[in-house]
Amino acid sequence: MVTVEQQLKDATLNVIAAHGLKGATTRRIAETAGVAELTLFRHFGSKASLIEAALLDLTSAFDEHIHPGDDVATDLTAFVSVYTKALRTQHRLLVVAFAEAQRHAEFSVLLRAQTARLQKLADLIEHHQQARQLRPEPPREAALALIGPLVMTALVLNAQPGFVTLPAPHDHVRAFLAGRQLRPDNQQELS
């Protein structure tokens, strides 16, 4: 059963995606969640606290999928799977967050989380570079090369629904690894 807190957090993300941060009034959020506006304040105290909780909830799902293992394709596919799932459901929120981030401090939690996640992904890539599974290149640039096409696809989906689709995670990772993954026969070139 979904808790009232989760209903409010989900409603918050949906309302922000549909109406922007300015249009995300506590009344609209409460109506979307199917609760009284007073319930929102009882559970979160303020609109800002609710927005922060909703955005942190959204970003925390990624963190459990960024753990270095022995296989680069498995590790990256796990991350891309979660990332594309979020982009499929939250691409409108992504557009709003990028557009309004400079004007609304509420989005700073989302941007800080994205920066931290990008660094964790870069660390994961560096782990596989050190294990000689990926060619050497700046890890942050490699991380951006992995997620950049996904973000761009989500932006296009927002503007032109149906024009493109997000790739299957396995296919996206396979394309990313083409030219980056080191094979046993060319690892000695790095020695």
Order of helices and strands: HHHHHHHH
Shape: elongated
Give the uncertain stretches in residue-range form: none
Total number of helical segments? 8
Give the strand content.
Answer: under 5%
Say how many strands there are: 0
The CATH topology annotation of the largest domain reads as Tetracycline Repressor, domain 2
Quickly name the level 1 CATH class of the largest domain: Mainly Alpha
Radius of gyration computed on alpha carbons: 19 Å
Q: Strand pairing plus helix content: what structural class?
A: mainly alpha
The main pleated sheet reads as: none
Helix content: 55-70%
Count of individual domains? 2
What does this structure look like?
With 191 residues, the chain is mostly helical. The chain has helices spanning 4-19, 26-33, 37-44, 47-63, 72-100, 108-130, 139-159, 169-177. The chain folds into 2 domains: 1-57, Homeodomain-like (Arc Repressor Mutant, subunit A, Orthogonal Bundle); 64-184, Tetracycline Repressor, domain 2 (Orthogonal Bundle). The chain has 8 helices and no strands. Helix 3 (37-44) packs across helix 4 and helix 6 (108-130) packs across helix 7 (139-159). It is elongated, with a radius of gyration of 19 Å. The N and C termini lie far apart (55 Å). The model has no long low-confidence stretch (mean pLDDT 87). Residues 25-44 bind DNA.
Task: Describe the secondary structure blueprint for this structure.
Layout: H1 4-19, H2 26-33, H3 37-44, H4 47-63, H5 72-100, H6 108-130, H7 139-159, H8 169-177
